[in-house]
Write a structure and sequence with these properties.
By secondary structure, this protein is an alpha+beta fold. It has 25 helices and 31 strands. The chain has three domains: 209 residues, no CATH class; 341 residues, no CATH class; 222 residues, Pleckstrin-homology domain (PH domain)/Phosphotyrosine-binding domain (PTB) (PH-domain like, Roll), CATH 2.30.29.30. It holds the Pfam family hSac2.
Length: 959
């Protein structure tokens, strides 16, 4: 048996590393048979070792308690941070015994030194003390209320609670004497519950309900309206440890982060990644904790739907989860490689909500409401206990039916955001080379009885339009731009729908984009792609419906969405749902999935998905002879609106538009004005904060290295690592070679992409506006091609014969001094090819009519010589194509300077070979000289004060 997953652990800053020691319930008779052994993370090296018994002596005063480990954030080989969960909130209970939590606070403990680790731990502990002093008892009770096993003996639980409360009280201040009365006051929540169990009428029933994450029975009028789940993103979050202490520790936190940067910078010589470390840490905490978007369960696989749950007996949880929803997989790499299964806690991004409700068992009429389960039409903010009713209070659904003519149910909504092509709105659109679409989310709606003996599951998905396209974040309504070739789009879309078929079976795609205007650009492309796939792959047909949401619901008549379900209702009936009875499948299984999209897959999509989910719920309840009253379904609408808000905040940084209709099924002017404000908010997020956040997301997921922060500092934007621009550029090289090389005997030696200044003059400004060009080298000539990336054609090219090349200069080529990466001589290199011509035509322009025209004078008779200047593109973005089967060494170059040197040597080798072939002709040896093209000093002289001010202002805003 593998070690049990650590549900609570003590993190101590020892002399030589951080010690992670799981805390066990010492008095519980149901303790795990094989607890996880403590481990140590060494400072700086991040090496993980299991501690032997003689090394378990820990100093609790130098530690902090945590509810799990998210992973290890490695900024560089010498700078890492352990991410631990210090605060959580229960949001649901699955199968009556598996609590589900949302992360509400984390601590990032540096592994650079013990001093820095102690500083971070002290801050976390001071936050806890401030939280207790502020009178917030929920966190204290949550720590006491450990659900090791539901069946542990009551006496043991109470003893543990008293011990935990006393322990927490005694450690609130070091070397402080305290009386029993002081301890009781400080931990009034824990002792109050202990006394209530002994003296209240309900006695130990309360404890049983709490063990299952249920609410205490309260028949007061105020309790009747507290039965609706509230999504944390939609309401002010309860104060977390960090929130309470933030005012008091703001200045100290700033000094701590600056100290970390200074210490690390001494080791890595002011690496840009470290200069942005404070912002990275801040963004990490915003993503993982403040957003309240990350969920986990210790013993239930949140990443898989009911139909895809695996038999995980004998396997650690992380080995059974669906990899695409295991968000912190990269952060857990060190623990996975070390085999420390007890510390590997899978975390899922998305939404989890739960609501208990009752419905009449015969006819639509509503009997007298059950005070424990009434679904209020105007619910207030719920508590954790409201998420599911208890089987202790409702022994069986049959008894409830006999007494009240109602049956009780629990509805759980789980949205799982894939970690593939993850990111933010305009920075992650369309599809990638692996067939993953942006904003891909699987949403499962689970309906069950309180005892979980009868369970229904319905799954649907949403994702961006599966074609290559992009949109600029600098416009309120940006026009979509289609990318890549027809063949590339077909391959990616086929891969995408193949993955859907393997996971869900049949697929019916519903597109909600407009049929006219800018959205139709990608809408038409999507429709044509589906038709092409259906005609090419006859064995798998993709259902297709194009529902122009804005046209059909014009005038805020969103109820017209019902017209869509009139069209696809039979398809959804055929797909059905999954049903389970007494823990075993009934034979009814969902055989297909509804795939919905709009442009963002947020607002319109959530309205349609809520409608599909309501339709599935009605079908499931109909099998039990139950009909829901539409007038008492506000709880359902609110649950789905919360789901939409959560997903929207993760992708667009604001709540979902059209949320008023999702909540109330009504649309009015106030909702439209609210949507306008959210749209403006999205716009400013798109152009300011999203770029760094996107870089941080890619880094946390392991899609990019720390180099992404160097690139961000230089350009204040982030690229898309999932879409291979290198492949696009290689395709452009191939297209260019076919167009410009007319002689079939003229073999291609190599092709590269470079940045280059314009060649309209003999001596162009080497620091002027650089554009991306393609350089082709054959055995007889060299070509400089300007490429139209949108039309995938050569717009113009110049040709120079090999024998006309006179000299080559290569070396440092610095065009900007604003960022440190701009002044790195190894990363900023280029070369100049000088040539001499004698009235030879070298310029040709390929027009949009696909005709070839010549330069105005048809020649360069006024030029006795010329030069081409080329600057190396960032190594990660450049493309290379060789004309032979040899392995090109340019891609293996250590840096851009080495890559330039290799290209220059290849050009010289061709020139030398030509001279050897034509000893009596024009062939001659080419002089190659290493010298600065534009030196650092020259670049500094050319950088104006206004340019420096502009960059400083931009860096201040964006970073």
């Amino acid at each position: 048996m593998p070690p049990s997953l650590a549900r609570k652990l003590l993190i101590v800053a020892a002399i030589d590393g951080l010690v992670l020691s799981p805390l066990q319930n010492a008095r519980s008779r149901s303790s795990p048979p094989q607890p996880s052994p403590p481990v140590k993370l060494e400072y700086r090296t991040n090496k993980i070792t299991v501690l032997t018994p003689d090394k378990k002596t820990l100093d609790p005063s130098s530690g902090v308690e945590a509810h799990g480990i998210v992973g290890l954030l490695k900024v560089s080989p010498t700078s890492s941070f352990l991410i631990a969960i210090t605060d959580r909130e229960q949001v649901a209970t699955i199968r009556g015994r598996s609590p589900v939590y949302v992360i509400t606070n984390i601590v990032l403990i540096p592994l650079s030194s013990r001093r820095e680790a102690l500083r971070a731990i002290d801050k976390a502990n001071s936050s806890k003390r401030s939280l207790v002093d502020a009178g917030n008892e929920s966190d204290t009770e949550a720590e006491i209320e450990e659900e090791e096993e539901g069946g542990s003996v009551v006496d043991d639980e109470i003893q543990d609670e008293i011990a935990e409360a006393g322990k927490a009280a005694s450690t609130t201040a070091s070397n402080e004497e305290s009386s029993i009365a002081q301890d009781v006051i400080r931990k009034k929540g824990a002792y109050g519950r202990f006394a209530e169990k002994w003296f209240s009428r309900r006695g130990w029933t309360v404890d049983r309900r709490r063990a299952e994450g249920m609410t205490e029975v309260d028949t007061s009028p105020s309790s009747k309206t507290e039965n609706i789940m509230e999504k944390p993103e939609n309401q002010p979050a309860p104060p977390t440890e960090g929130d309470v202490a933030s005012v008091a520790t703001d200045e100290a936190a700033k000094e701590d982060l600056e100290g970390k940067v200074e210490d690390v910078a001494e080791t890595v010589k002011e690496n840009v990644a470290h200069s942005l470390t404070p912002k990275l840490l801040h963004t990490t905490k915003l993503l993982l904790a403040t957003s309240r978007s990350f969920y986990f369960s210790y013993d239930y696989d949140l990443t898989r739907s009911l139909a895809s749950q695996l038999n995980s007996a004998g396997l650690p949880l992380y080995k059974t989860v669906d990899p695409q929803f295991f968000w912190n997989h990269h952060l857990q790499d060190e623990f996975i490689n070390a085999g420390n299964d007890g510390f590997i806690l899978p975390v899922m991004e998305g939404f989890v909500g739960q609501k208990s409700f009752s419905a009449p068992s015969s006819g639509p009429s509503s009997p007298e409401p059950n005070p424990d389960n009434e679904a209020s039409e105007s619910p207030p903010s719920p508590k954790v206990e409201d998420f599911a009713d208890s089987s202790a209070n409702v022994p069986t659904s049959d008894q409830t039916c006999d007494q009240t003519s109602e049956k009780s149910f629990i509805l759980t909504l789980i949205s799982r955001r894939t970690r593939h092509r993850a990111g933010l709105r305009y920075l992650r659109r369309g599809i990638d080379d692996e067939g993953h679409a942006a904003n891909g989310i699987e949403t499962e709606q689970i309906l069950n009885t309180p005892s979980w003996d009868h369970v229904f599951s319905y799954v649907q998905i949403r994702a961006s339009i599966p074609v290559y396209f992009s949109q600029s974040p600098y416009s309120l309504k940006p026009r979509p731009v289609l990318l890549q070739s027809e063949e590339a789009n077909t391959v990616a879309a086929h891969t995408h729908f193949k993955q859907i078929r393997e996971a869900y079976g049949k697929c019916h795609a519903v597109s909600l984009v407009e049929k006219h205007g800018p959205e139709a650009i990608v809408g038409n492309k999507y429709r044509d792609m589906v038709e092409k796939l259906n005609s090419t792959f006859a064995s798998y047909k993709i259902g297709w419906t194009w529902f122009d949401f804005h046209k059909e619901c014009r005038g805020m008549r969103f109820e017209n969405v019902s017209h869509l379900f009139d069209d696809i209702g039979s398809v959804l009936d055929d797909f059905s749902y999954t049903e389970e009875l007494n823990g075993k499948p009934t034979g009814k299984r969902q055989t297909g999935v509804l795939r919905t999209n709009c442009m963002d897959c947020l607002d319109r999509t959530n309205v349609v998905q809520a409608g599909a989910a309501r339709r599935a719920l009605d079908m499931q309840l109909a099998t039990l002879n139950i009909t829901l009253d539409d007038n008492k379904m506000s709880w359902f609408n609110i649950l789905w609106a919360d789901n939409g808000d959560a997903i929207s905040k993760q992708y667009a940084s604001t709540a979902a538009l059209k949320g008023d209709f999702t909540r109330t099924r009504k649309r009015n002017l106030q909702g439209a004005l609210t949507d306008f404000g959210l749209t403006i908010n999205r716009y400013f997020n798109n152009i300011i904060s999203d770029f760094f956040t996107q870089a941080a997301i890619d880094f946390l997921l392991g899609n990019v290295s720390a180099q992404v922060f160097v690139d961000f500092e230089a350009e204040m934007v982030s690229s898309d690592p999932a879409v291979s621009m290198r492949r696009v550029r290689q395709n452009a090289i191939e297209i260019s070679s076919k167009i410009v090389v007319e002689d079939e005997t003229e073999d291609l030696v190599g092709g590269w992409t470079f940045l280059a200044p314009p060649t309209s003059t003999v001596n162009p400004d080497l620091r002027g506006a650089l554009t991306e060009v393609i350089l082709l080298l054959t055995k007889d000539a060299i070509y400089r091609c300007e490429f139209d990336w949108a039309l995938e054609k050569v717009s113009a090219f110049e040709r120079v014969c090999i024998e006309d090349i006179t000299s080559i200069e290569w070396g440092t080529y610095i065009t900007s001094t604003l960022a440190s990466s701009h002044t790195d001589e190894n990363r900023n290199a280029g070369f100049i090819i000088r040539y001499s011509v004698e009235k030879k035509e070298i310029v040709r322009i390929n027009t949009r009519s696909l005709q070839t025209s010549f330069s105005k004078d048809g020649s360069v008779s006024n030029k006795t010589g010329g030069r081409w200047a080329f600057k190396a593109m960032p190594k990660a973005h450049s493309a290379v194509k060789v004309g032979t089967d040899e392995v090109d060494v340019v891609e293996k170059a250590a840096n851009e300077r080495d890559g330039v040197k290799i290209v220059v040597e290849q050009v010289k080798a061709v020139c030398d070979a030509n001279a050897t072939r034509h000893p009596e002709g024009h062939g001659h040896e080419v002089n190659v000289e290493e010298k600065d093209i534009v030196s650092l000093s020259e670049a500094k002289k050319g950088t104006g004060l206004l340019e420096q001010w502009g960059y400083s202002l931009k860096r201040f805003v964006w970073t």
